[in-house]
Amino acid sequence: MIISAGIINTTTLYFQDITATSNPHKPLSGINIPTGCKSIDGLPDTKCTPGVLNGNVTQDNLEDTICKPGFTKTIRPPTKYTTPLEIELMKSYGFTGDRKDFELDHLISLQLGGHPKDVKNLWPEPYLKDITEFTAHVKDTFENYLKRQVCKGSMTLSEAQKQIATDWKTNCIEAKKCKESVP
């Protein structure tokens, strides 16, 4: 019961913060957008997007957080927050083109205990294979694999977070969960 109250409190605080920083005229006021970011073959710039953890997700409360069906829906930011942020981060990363060709990605995904709205955990990840062979869809598959490992006890939460936040592509290849990019 106490853990459930913590989750409800987290959700309440989360939405209060979104409301406080969002309005129709200045949806990103108070948010420091990084500048001069560069993606190399589908990985985010570690200076701009180092990844940030959700302090309310721990190894001790996995069953009540990431391993609980529907958990990520309770903490996912609304589009009125994410859409303007995605546009600004695309500019920051120097990406041009249609926004539909990108996903505003959580480097450390929500299902692995990543922070839902911290700009240092969000970046515009390409869907298109002409930008990178390691698309958002490939990363999503690896995230799902890592979550399954954590929830069945084969891997610690911190190990999964490290694998996704560092060089997820290499870790994905080593786990045999994605194919290596072909030039």
Highlighted features:
single chain, disordered N terminus, 183 residues, 6 helices, 5% strand, mainly alpha
Task: Please render the helix and strand layout as text.
Elements lengths: L1 H20 L49 H5 L3 H15 L8 E5 L15 E5 L9 H16 L5 H9 L2 H7 L9
Antiparallel strand pairs: 1-2
Describe this structure in words.
The chain is mainly alpha-helical and 183 residues long. It has a domain at 49-174. It is built from six helices and two strands; from the N terminus they run αααββααα. It has a two-stranded antiparallel sheet. The longest helix has 20 residues, at 2-21.
Strand content: 5-15%
What's the assembly state of these chains? single chain
Strand order across the largest sheet = 1-2
C-alpha Rg (nearest Å): 16 Å
Indicate the mean pLDDT.
81
- What is the 3D form? globular
Report the total helices: 6
Count of DSSP strands: 2
> How helical, in percent, are the residues?
25-40%
How would you characterize the largest beta sheet? Answer: 2 strands, antiparallel
Order of helices and strands: HHHEEHHH
The class by helix and strand makeup works out as: mainly alpha
Ranges where pLDDT stays below 50 over 5 or more residues in a row are 1-26
Q: What is the CA–CA distance across the termini?
A: 53 Å
What is this structure, in a nutshell?
39% of the residues lie in helices and 5% in strands.
